[in-house]
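Worked example 4.2. Below are the chains of a multi-component assembly; read each line carefully before continuing.
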Amino acid sequence: MENKLDKLNIVGIAGSLRKGSYNRMLLEAAKEIATDSMTIEEFDLSGIPMYNTDVEKSAVPEIVTEFKEKIRAADGLLISTPEYNYSVPGVLKNAIDWASRMPKDTPLHQKPVAMMGGSGGISGTIRAQGHLRQILAHSNMLDLKKPEVLVTKIQEKFDGNGVLTDDALKQHLIRFLAAFENWIRIFKK
Amino acid sequence: MENKLDKLNIVGIAGSLRKGSYNRMLLEAAKEIATDSMTIEEFDLSGIPMYNTDVEKSAVPEIVTEFKEKIRAADGLLISTPEYNYSVPGVLKNAIDWASRMPKDTPLHQKPVAMMGGSGGISGTIRAQGHLRQILAHSNMLDLKKPEVLVTKIQEKFDGNGVLTDDALKQHLIRFLAAFENWIRIFKK
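Applying the procedure described above to all two chains together yields the following structure tokens:
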């Protein structure tokens, strides 16, 4: 039987590779907020090579195997992503492409997932998240629908040290992570 | 004044990196068919690294600069892509992410573009092409709407040497490329 007090184990990924990424700050903020209910461990996508079926068939890169096993062992996946060209970054899509292979082996199948994103303007990554939900549906992932985390003017929400200073966003993340926890526990019963 | 008989210069890209890619065969078939009206030169995406703003700010990779300049000098872009996870491959999206930078410098702005794709089953990359049109809209690219090239059971359309053997598809590609040529010449006038 599932012990309701067990902490959940979440893999977190950021869709941007740059060091000062606001979406990584958002993931860090979620990690801090979630400490009582879940442990969020970030997996850095920067070492994942371009997906190539020939490479996959000869030898799956070690980092890809590690990425897939981390997700397999986790209770859920948390994605924090910027929006590039009205969609998800190629970097994030490429990591999903690797993880989605093969149909009988993918750790994405029926894995709970939640998404967040922030932009410098007013879109809040709304188009990217629309695409992302469609992409994740291919692997039958269980995506938390609400509340959505669509952060506008994200650069105004953090201080120079990358610490979340916007209280409304902090309260929203608390509600979001509580909803994600409840969502995951439905499927763990 | 534009000479109507000048051959058009097209950059072709395939969204799959594997050697035996059917979508590269499709691009090759288009190249053969188009000889009278346009020259299609393939640009291989396999050397393009993951997009990273930090890398871009310190030094844009040479291959990215080359990719952007090839597109800038071309009359149009022809994309042949498989569908991964109901969307475009991360490999293709990543190349577009690089090429779309920066707003005042991107060669994608108002560049004519046409897309093709094939799948092993019945989808014919229909979802991927839907996403791709939305992605290209960010750079205000001029996408040919019809005819669409959505190839089902693509493995049955080529022989063991990668040569297009399906006459219906060949005739369709002839119409498609003629429409692409007309589309490009509208904007060259």
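Take a moment to check your reading of the output against the notes. Chain B touches chain A at residues 16-20, 46, 48, 50-54, 84-97, 100, 127, 131, 134-139 (CB under 8 Å). DSSP finds six helices and six strands in chain B.
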